[in-house]
What does this fold into?
Amino acid sequence: NRCFYFDEIASTNGFMLSHTTELKNGDVCVAEYQSAGRGRRGRTWVSPYGHHLYFSLFWTFPQGMAQAMGLSLVVACTLVEVLKSFGVENIGVKWPNDIYLDHKKLAGILIEMSGQADSQCQLIIGVGVNMAMSDEQGKGIDQPWSDLSELVDMPDKTALVIELQKQLKRDIQLFEREGLAAFKARWQAADLFYGREIRLLMGEKSVEGICRGVDEQGAVLLETADGVQAFIGGEISLRAR
Ligand code: ATP
It folds into this structure.
């Protein structure tokens, strides 16, 4: 595999999206700074210079998006486990793909697509992790955030890139073979809201209930007075109640 390394770039996902014809599964892009780091739904990923990770990995799904449903949960499991292997504690996931440390956002995942959703598609899996963020650098973040600066041994960025690439390749291959079923227990172990009261925001509407994990499509399961219902979709945000 290849790693494209940039001192500065608009967006590592953007770079990969414009070079899909040259890429192989597992190729990565890493930058020290993103001038236009992206989040979901047109949001910004604050990406200052310094000891932070801005990482994208390329993968092709020959059968299109349907085959990749739930991939963001796989990536979240992998990222949490890799960070734990570097000594990060008190870390977990919030459905569908946010990583929290001490209940503040540590990392984000953004999966973007190129190609045909219903036949072959190329996916770019973007990961941003705050490693040592100063208050000044974090000023633009409009929600509570965290970083790894409390760690006794701050991970070496290159070691983190190598491990993340290796484990993502392994887990995406497992996902291709066995689907999300192979990750249910791992997700549950990392889920910060499992068994807790949550609220799902869907535009103007919201529903409340107890979080019962995820199903095999990657939908979040909510137990209400009417029983357990599955919710899925990019417009849904999960909140603690
Ligand atoms: P939410 O976190 O509210 O559920 P989301 O999953 O749609 O939203 P992402 O696309 O993962 O959001 O990330 C974008 C959001 O994350 C931004 O709107 C901002 O609130 C927050 N954010 C941006 N940069 C950082 C950063 N470096 N560290 C932590 N949080 C950030």
About this structure: The two ends are 44 Å apart (CA to CA). The pocket of adenosine-5'-triphosphate is lined by residues 39-41, 43-46, 98, 105, 108, 110, 128, 130, 141-143, 145, 237 (CB under 6 Å).
